[in-house]
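Q: Structure tokens for this one, please.
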Amino acid sequence: MLHIFLKDARRLWWVILATWVPLTALAWLDRWRTDWLISAPEGWLNLLVPLAWACLIAMVVQEEPLADKEHFWITWPYRWPVLLGSKVLFVTAFIHVPALVADAVVVTAHGFPLWGSMPALLGKQAVQAAVVTGPAVALAAVCHRIPHFLVAAILLFGGAAYVAAFSGPVPPWFAPDALRRELPAFVVASAAGVVILMQYSRRCTTSSRVVGGVSVVTAAALFGSLTPSLTARLRVALSPGQGELSLRLPVPRPEVPRALRVGRFQAEFDSLALPVTISPAPGGAEYLIDRPQIEIVGSNGQRLRSVIPAPGLHTGPYDMLAYFVLNQQGQHWLGLRIPRRAMDQFRGSQVAILGRSTVTFVERGETAWMPAGGSVAVPRLGRCRTEEPVDQLPYRDGMLKVVCESVAPISSLTEVRLWNPASGQSWRHHLGDSAAAAYGPREAWLSPLHRLQTYFQLAAGSRATMPGNRWLVPLEELNGARVAITPGWITRSATLTIELQALDLQAFVVAAEK
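A: Here is the predicted structure, written as tokens:
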């Protein structure tokens, strides 16, 4: 094994050094970055470095090609575990170890202890082996020549990067949807392991190509078919035992919250607001309700089904939308946007609203406080800090940024609260609910640090007290203000059954404000 490894290192030393150059540049940029948003050079390097690794892997695998039968090395006394072990050792020594060193430099530069961060850094290398180096070895093992590999690698990796970049972020008021990416990645990683073993042990090139092709198609089909409602059902199936929940209408009917009021007349659709109560009541537990999938059934058999917005799916003015709104008094509302031409079919008759959704329960950790302009270590989260406003424009008086970073993934359910003890005023945000526009590659998936941030918009003068500007923070409120960081994470999920009978939709239409 060692002599094959040394032979490969002697022949490819210049390629090894070439892959270390962009890796070093990426680590240097990441070491100085203090924002969730990455620069254009760092974004492109996050694409270039994996491609450079893939090229190096293709060259070392093609030193002893597996897809042909006329190569001299086949007659040598190579046992396949020795040959495979030498390639694994090469990839580990010249790709994963340098990547681990670069990650360690970035982590220590940001003040995280190296020894305490090592489990997360090793886990990151395991993920990279599953989704980058492992599939690259499998692809190189079934290709006849390096040019064939390059064409296939660019198409596959470029397609994956495109889909990941344009899949769209999940708003922080919904439960994070990690299954949509994890399940396709698991399929590809598993198939790569099977292909590697088949090629090195049996050299079954045709069968290996079939397995690889089927895995790619399956992963793409999974990514495209895993809608938010389907992944929510999967979360429920994987969650600890939790009884089903249902909705009912409270008596008497409360006042419609401002978030559901219609500011002006809309000719295309009607807005409805139905007060609802969850039964049995979850008690004091904090929870989120996903977008529901509902269907309105009329007395004459008319049916209208809602559309759930998803990445790549753009809703139009003639689609029915359904969503939940929670007011400040803790009352839930089911909001409906129904096209007017569809609403006319249900006027003057009783209807039933049927459907389902998912309730995700959230556990809160210990709250950490810091002054505006300070920093704090948040237990079970990482390090958070605020930055004083520096942006002064005629219609924007600056922003107070709160950014958190950690070696572990940061949940967008983390709550950020700005509070002034003197006035008692407070403003609430969530990490990841606001970010500047980014052009070009914006995925920093090779970074060892996870970052999320939010902004508090500042205002001078009387603009903050004008109607509708409650979200603005007066500049004078920053004096003595404190920022509270409360981490949150998902504990379990439950199915919410929606079955509301004998309703007159016209009674819940929200009148437009004048």
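A few notes: The chain has a mean pLDDT of 82. The chain has ten helices and 18 strands.
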